Amino acid sequence: MKTFYKIILSFIIVISILPSAKTFAHSCTSFGESFKYWIDCNNHTDTAIIKFNLGVMDATYKGYVTSGAKMWNDSGLVLISETTTYSRNFIHTYSDFNSGYTAVFYNYESNSSGHLQSWAVGMNTAEMDDSTAAQNRTTMAHEFGHVLGLNDLSQTTNRDTLMYKNRGSRTVTSPTSWDTTGVKKILGQ
To answer: Which strand ranges, in their side-by-side order, compose the sheet holding 116-124?
Structure first.
């Protein structure tokens, strides 16, 4: 019986002194401006199904959210939708005439693999009320690009992508093949 305990004790000691290795679900290459999509390796989705709660807002703003989600859903890559059950993801409106932002993706948290665990999107009614419905739908599609894990693009050569950050100069109104290629990379497709 003593031999058995010695073997077990030896095994425990050996296991406890071995170095541990961190493993991740996948590797991430961010690509970047020259690829026309830029993946946020520290903050991206790990699922094709995205659920969120909506704050109190009028039907017009709910429509912008729904339309922005539909643009991504139509790609066949993801399913983005509101849920009535609790979600750590939240979309709401606010009003700030001084911020200069039309909408913001913020308050996001990710795990050690870079997978988003929670996030928020705020729609600035002070800016959006002075924009067209088409611009606001595209703005929400752009924000959902961040939810999926795409960064803003700022080089003018990327004006033909949804993730181009200057909406006044953006030449597209929905996700392009470059935007969806980025999401495919995020999802490992």
So the answer is: 79-82, 49-54, 89-94, 116-124, 103-110
